[in-house]
Amino acid sequence: MEKIIIALDGHAGCGKSTTAKAVAKELNYVFIDTGAMYRAVTHNFLTNEVDIADINDVNKALSKISLKFVLNPSTGIGEVHVNGQNVEPFIRNMEITSRVSDVAAIKEVRVFCVKEQQTMGKDKGIVMDGRDIGTVVFPNAELKVFMTADVKVRAKRRLKEMESKGVSTSLEDVIADIENRDHIDSTRKESPLKKADDAVVVDTSGLTIEEQVASILKLAKAKIGA
Ligand code: CDP
Ligand code: CDP
Fold first, then answer.
1. What is the pLDDT along the chain (226 residues), one digit of tens a residue?
2. Which of 1, 70, 117, 173 has the lowest CB atom count within 10 Å?
3. Does the annotation place 130 within a ligand binding site?
4. Residue 130 CB–ligand 2 contact under 6 Å
5. For ligand 1, is residue 135 a contact (CB within 6 Å)?
């Protein structure tokens, strides 16, 4: 059966990663969380005290980063490794989350990550989620979905997720983070978050994860001809 590229873009907390993971599993495709790559670069920059206002410092740091997804056999999900170290446990905290959009707005960082993403998708059979997959990384992707949802709904979901992981924060702080990142991501000069002209819009505000996954699977199967 023909393999395709499925690009899932959209705002923070719409359920892109959860959906991409489930769709990839069902189709036996590879799931690639591009946000994890920008988070991993941010983690590296913070650890090495890179001055993001100094482009020479940024380029020097990027030249020393080797980024890979390594499959975790117990979950079947690829985890992001930087220079051989699994950084997955360090990239989802509030510190990284609050800084990642500024790092992801840097042109050189985007060029670095996009090149890796295009290599990962060269054989197709991938579900990639992010902000610019349908517009920049794979403008010819066979299926493009643009997800959005009411900010309060997204923040409540995120808060629940964080509380279940023992992270204490407030709904106000989560709303502020999501609004701030959406703003930076949508207004940056380099590859801003925007709907591709040929993307299908899915508003997940009133959807359960199961409904969301089913709707994307239906679109994917129609494209694949399954
Ligand atoms: O999961 P969540 O929506 O909170 O974020 P993420 O997908 O992990 O992405 C974290 C951040 O990385 C986003 O807010 C963007 O600033 C950046 N990002 C990007 O610029 N381009 C992508 N393709 C993916 C993420
Ligand atoms: O990748 P993105 O930031 O778009 O969202 P996610 O990390 O997949 O989902 C954020 C949280 O919302 C997760 O805890 C999901 O389980 C939850 N979610 C939900 O409860 N209902 C949905 N319809 C979609 C996501």
1. 789 999 999 999 999 999 999 999 999 999 999 999 999 999 999 999 999 999 999 999 999 999 999 999 998 889 999 999 999 999 998 899 999 999 999 999 999 999 999 999 999 999 999 999 999 999 999 999 999 999 999 999 999 998 998 888 899 999 999 999 999 999 999 999 999 999 999 999 999 999 999 999 999 999 998 6
2. 1
3. no
4. no
5. no
Ligand nearest to the CA of 42: 1
181 Cβ closer than 6 Å to some ligand 1 atom: yes
Whether 226 is in a domain gets the answer: no
35 is in an annotated binding site: no
Residue type, 159: L
* Number of domains, the chain: 1
Contact residues for 120 (Cβ-Cβ < 8 A; gap 6+) = 30, 32, 69, 126, 128
Ligand 1 near 130 CB (within 6 A): yes
Range of the domain at 46: 5-220
**163: in domain:** yes
Tell me, what CATH number does 140's domain have? 3.40.50.300
Ligand nearest to the CA of 213: 2
Residue pair 7/137 in contact by the 8 Å Cβ criterion: yes
Q: Please tell me whether the overall predicted TM-score, pTM, comes out greater than 0.95 for this model.
A: yes
In a domain, 225, yes or no: no
In a domain, 195, yes or no: yes
The best mutation among 80, 101, 118, 151 to test binding of ligand 1, ranked by most ligand atoms within 8 Å of the C-beta, falls on 101
Nearest of 163, 170, 66, 220 to residue 212 by alpha carbon? 220
* Complex confidence, ipTM: 0.98
